[in-house]
Design brief:
single chain, about 425 residues, alpha+beta, Alpha-Beta Plaits, MutS, DNA mismatch repair protein, domain I, Dna Ligase, domain 1, five-stranded mixed beta sheet, about 20% strand
């Protein structure tokens, strides 16, 4: 940790990104309240909505049919992950023209570290970035920009004047503007953590500011509390790089896809997509988990472990064995609401070389043979930019691309849309 006396971080957070992209690309809906859903269904929930829609009381997670009841003029758009990723990449190119992007936090949030003269002309730099984005990407895709001593405070600043705002939290002015915020306005303080802080007598940002750092650590029960306290005070905090631990996908099933047979088709493709990401990242896995959630009833999950592998054939076989076990837990007429698959206990091949010698000769030969097949298939599909060769037929899943789901901290790559 090091105390910072100048502005060192520029944080950009795009406003209602998916909805803003839709407005930019569809002139006919620019004057309307807009909400974006994952599926084309009146029972689907909104994953984002524009600021005009928020004024009507439309919330993230609200079902489409309920939103239409309070906002008849609402324009409902089905998410287009491949389009959003392309816009994201154009955004990065434009920002890089002005200052290097240090870290991409999500598809609509990125951080830039400022050095030298950039620190003393940060507001002017932010305005040049804003103008460049309007010209290169579009004026309806607006950024809120925060400037401060570190990423944490710059993110807080960016959220203070949304939409399309520019806020500076200079270290010399702290805690000043922070004292007007609620604890839950600080990143990392959830409603549950707010309750824990309240029990410790910390009810305001000022209370948190005045804590001893070791007290903050004690409330959190780990070093993260002390780190957050330090960031709030304008310290530069170095964190160890996070390690990838799992690859997985899930899908909510619409009508027509919620029978057990169709749910298995969906889970099969999700497994293949997760395996493809596993191979592309250079990992093998030794465990696979699935979960099934019926329309009525409790979620069921199970896990299998096996010799290290990353090929579609072996992982699909493991998934189908587990699915058969899960299917037996439900009635004959069950309808499946959602499915989930996760590949975990992952390692680089060189890290598990000892285990490889424990394979039976037949298993070792099969693993090597299928590994070679997968390498050839992946190369051919990547070359042509589409799934030219696959393990069995591929269905068109509800919600589109099986491997292209956008999650916080993960921006799909072009290969995810093959």
């Amino acid at each position: 940790m090091a105390q910072v006396s100048e502005i060192e971080c520029l944080y950009i957070d795009f406003d209602a990104f998916f909805a803003s992209v839709e407005k930019q690309l569809r002139p006919e809906i620019r004057r309307l309240p807009v909400g974006v859903t994952a599926l084309d269904s009146e029972y689907s929930s909104f994953i984002t909505r524009c600021y005009e829609a928020k004024k009507f009381g439309i919330k993230r997670g609200m079902k489409v049919r309920d939103a239409r009841a309070i906002c008849p003029t609402l324009s409902v758009q089905v998410a287009r992950p491949d389009v959003y990723v392309k816009i994201h990449n154009r955004i990065l190119e434009e920002i890089d023209r002005h200052v290097p992007v240090t870290k991409v936090w999500s598809i609509d949030e990125m951080e830039c570290t400022l050095t030298g003269r950039e620190r003393f002309s940060a507001p002017q730099l932010a305005e040049r970035i804003r103008e460049g984005l309007a010209k290169a990407v579009g004026p309806y895709i607006t950024p809120s920009i925060g400037l401060s001593a570190n990423q944490f405070l710059a993110k807080v600043a960016g959220d203070m004047n949304k939409p399309n705002g520019l806020t500076v939290l200079h270290p010399r002015n702290l805690p000043g503007p922070l004292l007007n915020l609620k604890l839950t306005d600080l990143p990392g303080i959830s409603a549950g953590m707010s309750v824990r802080l309240d029990r410790a007598g910390v009810q305001t940002v000022e209370d948190f500011w005045n804590l001893a750092p070791k007290h903050a650590r004690a409330i959190w029960g780990n070093i993260e509390g002390e780190r957050m306290w330090a960031q709030l005070h304008g310290h530069r905090v170095e964190r160890p790089e996070t390690q990838k631990r799992m690859f997985g996908h899930s899908r909510v099933l619409t009508k027509g896809w919620n029978s057990p047979d169709k749910a298995l088709d969906c889970l099969s493709l999700l497994t293949v997509k997760a395996a493809y990401r596993l191979r592309r990242s250079g990992y093998l896995c030794k465990a696979l988990s699935i979960a099934l959630r019926p329309q009525d009833g409790e979620r069921w999950s199970a896990q299998s472990t096996f010799a290290p592998c990353n090929d579609d054939q072996a992982l699909s076989r493991q998934m189908r064995t587990l699915f058969k076990l899960g299917r037996a837990q439900f009635s004959e007429n069950v309808r499946i609401k959602s499915v989930y698959v996760m590949l975990h206990d992952i390692s680089k091949p060189e890290a598990i070389s000892g285990d490889l010698f424990d394979f039976a000769d037949e298993d070792s030969a099969r693993s090597k043979r299928w590994g070679n097949i997968m390498t050839a298939m992946d190369g051919l599909n990547a070359k042509h930019g589409k799934a030219l060769v696959t393990m069995g037929p591929r269905a068109n899943l509800p919600g589109g691309f099986a491997g292209g789901k956008i999650a916080f901290g993960r921006v799909p790559e072009a290969e995810d849309f093959i």
